[in-house]
Amino acid sequence: MRILSLASGSKGNCYYVESGESHILVDCGLSLKRLEERMAEAGIDPSKVGYVLISHEHSDHTKGLVNFFKKYHPKIFCNYISAERIEKLNPELESRINTFDNEQLFLGNVTVDAIPVSHDSSFCTAFKLSAGSAAASIVTDLGFIDSGIIDKISGSKVVFLESNHDERMLRICHYPSIIKSRIASNMGHLSNTQAGHAMVELVRRGTRHFALSHISENSNTYEKAYVTIANILGESGINIDTDVVVRFAHQHKIGNNFKLGEDD
Ligand SMILES: [Zn+2]
Ligand SMILES: [Zn+2]
After folding, report:
1. Domain presence at residue 264
2. Residue 17 placed within a domain
3. What average pLDDT does range 57-71 have in this prediction?
4. 101 CA to middle of ligand 2, Å?
5. pTM metric for this prediction
């Protein structure tokens, strides 16, 4: 299994997962042109993408969906509540989205568990994608993370985990106060601190590779995220430099090309 980020952040999100003949996009929040550029850079043939999984309707996760669908005709999958909203916002997609509730999906040889998370959209799901013993999870756009979510993603070799904001930077940044409260709320986005505590639990359950994702350009920096998380891991006896691999999923470039063998 191969997984990488094509874009991550409030200006657009898209991840790519490949295993055998299954080629999957998770979210489609870049313009078609930008998406094609980044896929070319990563050596991905867009015409091979058979499936697009959508986490929720926000435009940073869906803005390229209509044009990508029109050109390449992948099967789109989304929770039924989000699908209704997306079809309403994009009439071209009416009756074109395959919906799920809480059942597992089988996309070729990749099994997908969709995990409901708390976010200020009609519905939102994180995803765990598995093929054989290889598994990776993409967990962004959630206001909190609890042991129920961690149970469902445990066993992942790699977790793309939201580390959206530094709490202090969010308080003093230029956003209107209503936006700040929304982001910090249980229906908003995970802070570095929340991500750090979740990582402690995930490391205890065997995850070693992380890509910090959906990092805010206005209320966070890579350095803040890294230092905050290093301290939280350190308090639990986990050394960020030697015990785990922590990378960043970038907004403006591809990255985190993780390859997971069957026995990784
Ligand atoms: Zn988002
Ligand atoms: Zn969102």
Report:
1. no
2. yes
3. 98
4. 19
5. 0.97
